[in-house]
Amino acid sequence: MPDLLIALRAVVALAAVLGLLLFLSRRLQKSQAKGASPLAGLMPKKLASLSSLRPSRQAAGPRSRAEKITVVARSGLGGKAQLVVAEFGGIRYVLGVTEQGVSVVDTQEAPPAEEEPLRAADTPLAAASDDDDRSLKPVA
After folding, report:
1. pLDDT tens for each residue of 15-69
2. What are the angstrom distances between the C-alpha of 5 and each of 2, 15, 16, 56?
3. CA-CA distance, 29 to 86, in Å (whole number)?
4. How far apart, in Å, are the Cα atoms of 98 and each of 65, 84, 85, 102, 127?
5. pTM above the 0.70 mark?
6. Rounded to an integer, what distance in angstroms lies between the CA atom of residue 31 and that of residue 39?
7. CA 61 → CA 36, 94, 118, distances in Å?
8. Closest of 90, 81, 87, 75 to residue 120, by C-alpha
9. What's the pLDDT score for residue 120?
10. Which segments of 1-140 are extended strands (E)?
């Protein structure tokens, strides 16, 4: 009989802990869906008015969208080495990419966006040999 009571106590305690975890996870999901602070959903509504007395941290301002990194061209140099031309923030980077890492070979300003991109036949690298795998290939 005492073993049955101990087992029953353990089951009730486990159910209480699981119920509390389920309750807290739902409160957190609701507060995050509203866009509030994750911990704001855990505070009772009557105490939530007290949190308005504390000055909140203001964001530095509206976040600007991060610029995208675009790969302009890439060329295989050997087994697992590549030469990549990437553009970010109006600057073109010539990168050497190997298994060990990425190194910046050269940088230059990107041409203005109004200019039409050169066709593959107009570029000197592609005109030199069309079937050569080592020429830089524009990435669409």
Report:
1. 999 999 999 888 888 777 777 666 666 666 666 666 566 665 555 556 566 778 8
2. 5, 15, 16, 50
3. 39
4. 30, 11, 14, 6, 27
5. no
6. 8
7. 17, 34, 40
8. 75
9. 47
10. 70-76, 82-88, 91-97, 102-109, 137-138
